[in-house]
């Protein structure tokens, strides 16, 4: 496979006097090569530390202001109680105490809401950075490959590799844009079609195949299935979005060679439980609730070890709740990895 790193070498084999277009692509191929590992890591750590410092600074002002006002309110309330008690103004004491308590509650709510708003703004900022990166990367790659095809005489095999890579980049771009559009219309998604009884086994196998193909993986080498015959009465597009995003997450955060196990069980209470298990590092218990929030990504946006926007699991949770179900995550017991359990109303296949 000819990757972007090898384009510079390929173009460098051109004649001694390359044209302006060739020189431009050669420069791009060379500049796309990463710098030394030590410099890259130290630069990333320094930038990340700076970003953490800036974010702490954003929270410091509202927290400090709220704490000062709370302390002042408590001091005034104590002073008022002592003063009113000394002169036996019991009605004033009661009214004043209630007012001070309400002010204290209001300040507490203000602090909580302010912190939530600041954190949401941070996630939105990270999301914009991430989407910008996710959009620019495949576009830059496509442009580089197209320019190389224009100025170089390549063999049929090389052209085939180029076309395959370009197709993968286009599919990656299409997947990102689809996610962005899906979030916009989650509430009305699928309402144009009628609910139907949907068998889970063929639907989940189809979703797994699509996600493996998108990543150029063989489904038989990645996925293992263990199904009990089950069906869910809903709209097909909703289930496809749920399971495609969960399987995509399992492959993305799996091991170096991802292995995904998918299990479907029918409970006696009219519920269908689907478990999607990966072989990754697992999810920190402290962030298990946060990973389903919109724009949330557990790792630093600066490192970008994994591509993504923080929308996939938010889509999953929103649609599962829309169908009257719930989604949870916990560690695997048999090996490292995570288990995403999707509990939906359903029944055994008739």
UniProtKB/TrEMBL annotation:
It holds the Pfam family HATPase_c. It is an enzyme of class 2 (transferase). Its EC number is 2.7.13.3. The keyword Cytoplasm does not apply. Keywords: Kinase, Membrane, Phosphoprotein, Transferase, Transmembrane, Transmembrane helix, Two-component regulatory system. InterPro entries: HATPase_C_sf, HATPase_dom, His_kinase_dom, HisK_dim/P_dom, HisK_dim/P_sf, Sensor_HK_Regulatory, Sig_transdc_His_kin-like_C. GO terms for molecular function: phosphorelay sensor kinase activity. It comes from the Bacteria. Residues 130-348 form the Histidine kinase domain. Residues 16-47 are annotated as: Disordered. Residues 32-46 have a biased composition (Low complexity). The chain crosses the membrane at residues 61-82, 88-113. The keyword Transferase applies. It catalyses: ATP + protein L-histidine = ADP + protein N-phospho-L-histidine. SUPFAM superfamilies: ATPase domain of HSP90 chaperone/DNA topoisomerase II/histidine kinase, Homodimeric domain of signal transducing histidine kinase. This is histidine kinase. It comes from Gimesia panareensis.
């Amino acid at each position: 496979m000819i990757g972007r790193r090898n384009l510079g070498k390929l173009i460098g084999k051109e004649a001694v006097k390359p044209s302006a277009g060739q020189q431009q692509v050669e420069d791009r191929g060379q500049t796309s090569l990463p710098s030394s590992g030590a410099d890259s890591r130290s630069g990333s750590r320094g930038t990340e530390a700076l970003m953490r410092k800036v974010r702490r600074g954003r929270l410091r002002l509202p927290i400090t202001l709220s704490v000062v006002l709370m302390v002042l309110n408590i001091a005034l309330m104590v002073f008022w109680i002592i003063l009113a008690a000394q002169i036996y103004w019991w009605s004033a004491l009661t009214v004043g105490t209630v007012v001070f308590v309400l002010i204290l509650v209001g300040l507490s709510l203000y602090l909580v809401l302010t912190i939530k708003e600041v954190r949401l703004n941070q996630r939105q900022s990270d999301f914009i950075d991430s989407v910008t990166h996710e959009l620019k990367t495949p576009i830059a790659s496509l442009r580089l490959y197209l320019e190389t095809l224009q100025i170089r005489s390549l063999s049929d095999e090389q052209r085939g590799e180029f076309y395959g890579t370009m197709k993968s980049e286009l599919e990656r771009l299409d997947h990102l844009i689809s996610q962005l559009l899906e979030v916009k219309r989650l509430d009305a998604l699928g309402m144009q079609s009628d609910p139907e009884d949907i068998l889970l086994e063929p639907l989940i196998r189809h979703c797994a195949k699509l996600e493996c193909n998108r990543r150029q993986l063989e489904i038989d080498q990645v996925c293992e299935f263990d199904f009990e015959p089950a069906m869910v009465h809903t709209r097909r597009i909703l289930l496809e979005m749920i399971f495609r995003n969960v399987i995509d997450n399992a492959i993305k955060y799996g091991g170096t060679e991802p292995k995904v196990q998918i299990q479907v069980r029918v409970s006696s209470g009219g519920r269908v439980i689907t478990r999607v298990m990966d072989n990754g590092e697992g999810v920190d218990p402290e962030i298990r609730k946060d990973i389903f929030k919109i724009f949330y990504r557990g790792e630093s946006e600066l490192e970008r070890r994994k591509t993504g926007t923080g929308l996939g699991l938010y889509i999953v949770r929103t649609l599962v709740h829309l169908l009257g179900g719930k989604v949870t995550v916990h560690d695997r017991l048999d090996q490292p990895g995570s288990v995403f359990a999707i509990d939906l109303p359903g029944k055994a296949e008739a």
